[in-house]
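agent> step 3/5: call structure_predict on target 'Large ribosomal subunit protein uL1' (Allocoleopsis franciscana PCC 7113).
agent> reason: downstream docking stage needs a structural representation; sequence fetched in step 2, passing through unchanged.
tool.input:
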Amino acid sequence: MTRKLSRRLQELQKKVEDRPYDPLEALNLLKETATAKFPESAEAHIRLGIDPKYTDQQLRTTVALPKGTGQTVRVAVIARGEKVTEASNAGADLVGSEELIDEIQKGMMDFDLLIATPDVMPQVAKLGRLLGPRGLMPSPKGGTVTFDLAQAIQEFKAGKLEFRADRTGIVHVLFGKASFSAEDLLVNLKALQETIDRNRPSGAKGRYWRTVYVSSTMGPSIQVDINALRDMKVGEAA
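tool.output (status=ok):
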């Protein structure tokens, strides 16, 4: 059954032409079509030429958004001994050892990101069925399994994000707020594009980038000219 579009979205879609837009033009249009009654996020939906069912075609990494995410990230840390104090001093919102693992097992999920030190991962592994579906399971690739807690906490609170391609090869990622300037959104989108290029899976064959769309949380999808985005120099996006 096709979902009926709201009148608001139907009107907004009339503003979007069926063509790839220059990146800055697309982001100005994203801002113009962010008319919901709450602060909307800016989202990127990127289709890549990969098949993640093969291990050498999977993409999972992190990006440091230079202009931040515009969101407050609640960080939980599972560690032992002096690392508990280190995490607390570094600004973690929740810190603990076995007792925090027990609380999470009972359903406590008052955090947006979970970091763990390598020595507690055997215990954290039993949370896989709870955390995995929510994308919260710590992983070395995602930068969330580390002994350098202070740096990790600082980076994720400042705008570092973990993302991955879903099983159809599409990356869905927030890259700021619709209230950001179009120029700041472009700096973040460029950082995301460079990260995806830098982490191209070894098994990716043929055309890597298929389509890039951006939208606000409740707005219409706007296609971005991939080549224009990739050809842009960092200075041009600043």
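agent> step 4/5: record observation. The chain has two domains: 17-69+160-231, 75-158.
agent> proceeding.
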